[in-house]
Amino acid sequence: MTIEGRDLSIGYPERLVGSGLNVRLEQGEVLALLGPNGGGKTTLLKTLLGLIPPRGGEARLMDKPLDALSARERAQLIGYVPQVHQGTFAFTVESVVLMGRTAHGSLFAAPSARDREISHAALERFGIAELAQRAYTEISGGERQLVLLARALAQEPRFIVLDEPTASLDFGNQGKVMREIRALAQAGLGVLFTTHDPNHAMRAATRAFLLRDGACLAEGPVAEVLNAATLEQLYRAPVQIMRERDRIAFLPG
Amino acid sequence: MPRSTLPGAMIALAVLAAGFAVAFLVGRFPISIADIASVLWSKVSGAPSGVPASAESVILQVRGPRVIAAFLVGAALAIAGTAFQGLFRNPLVSPDILGASSGAALGAVIGIYFSLGVFSIQLFAFVGGLIAVAAVYMIGTAIRTRDPVLVLVLAGVVIGSLLGAGVGLMKYLADPYNQLPAMTFWLLGSLAAANVSDLVPLFGPVLAGSLVLLALRHRMNVMSLPEEEARALGVPTARLRIAIVAAATLVTSASVAAAGIIGWVGLVVPHLARSLVGPDFARLVPVSAILGGGFLLFIDTLARTMAPVEVPLGILTAVVGTPFFIWLLASVSKTWS
Fold first, then answer.
1. At the N or C end, where does chain A have fewer CB atoms within 10 A?
2. pTM, entire model
3. H or E segment to which residue A210 belongs
4. CATH fold of A2-252
């Protein structure tokens, strides 16, 4: 099972953001989407989620065009973790995670006992079950990110798509989210995430997709794609490399 | 903070029961609970009630219809306000955000200007509310942006002010001795004229709309998330939004047509309900309806008993609502951040 973009043009009615993009995500692998601000990462993500229609080419999920599936069918296959937000109403963490079960119930149904079990298991999975009755608006940014991850997991999807999962997290929580991403792929899910940090891609992803000005600069296994040359080209900024045995880290400047 | 919802729901029910009791018992004509019980029992059993005919007529013809109308209007405005606050992801939204009240006001004022009967004025008001919201909705969906909800609110504000200008024009043109006081009175809201025949056109739309909103309450949590997030969770947001707007507009237009413009209920009551049972719409929607009915029963009893003349409801709800809302902001603003 795959998410696939073929010769994809992305953008909005008033503005084309990118074109000629070929993306492929299999179950069990982690694809990192890297690129400078305004390069089209989020637009590509939303096109692959079916939230905005492609401006050209085709976005496919399980060999069907994405727009042939209903919002409900898509949500049963792809979980979306948006950038952490504040939230308007002070829903409990449990209510937020239960929202992940929406696509599995009818339009009028109350959450079932099974929905509650699955939601609770998702909270346990990320070690935040004790937050269940806390208000989502009162917990920390790192905890919110984990709650949104738990919500995506409660969807019981085949793929999880994350928009800058580490953007608002402290150093420790960044590591935790990266570990969870790897664990999700080991459990058989396909994971796609955007990030500003090539080190996160290096550690958590199997493949990387470098996007600049709406065009693909390079795509492939992280070890092949991520190096000083490609990153300098991607960000138009100098990049330093630190090596220790077979491990590698990138520093800006 | 977590809270057990049972006490909150019990408080709401107690407020409603007290509201019913006060609305029936308080007034110039003394009525006892026993009188009400015997009259109601005689209606069920068919046997004579033994209550003086004058008391029976006060219960059945005067206070009864007014009590039911107050409950229905209060519940309708509160349930519509709750739904709209979720849909527009904003706790400061009230049921007239999409122009239902301004449309109804223009319809009613036109009806009064042409000296139509009470029923026609109500019909004009009802249809005016529906047309206004339909126009706002069409404008909102015709303009394609990434945030359909924001465009909808802005269209509502703009159309609302245009309709307000229309109301101003009709008041300016109206006969100042006869029509203008009638318009002013209507615009301030009152249940003084509520009688048995008013209940039927009020009851139908309020019941239909409320049932739809109650049925959809489990999806309102998700609908209160950002548009794209809600769709990614599998909700057909566009269709659900139409259903919620249509149902809320139906109940709002019907209550405004029956009682004139009564502000504040649809804004304040959802907050009060949220402080009782938390923000989860599955519980909030029914508790709001119960509390809104109880709230307006108290306000309406106050309106007809506090002064020798009827005090317009719109004025009372504003006078009671403003300090109350400020207190609410200061004390329980944690329930929405």
1. C
2. 0.90
3. strand A207-212
4. Rossmann fold (3.40.50)
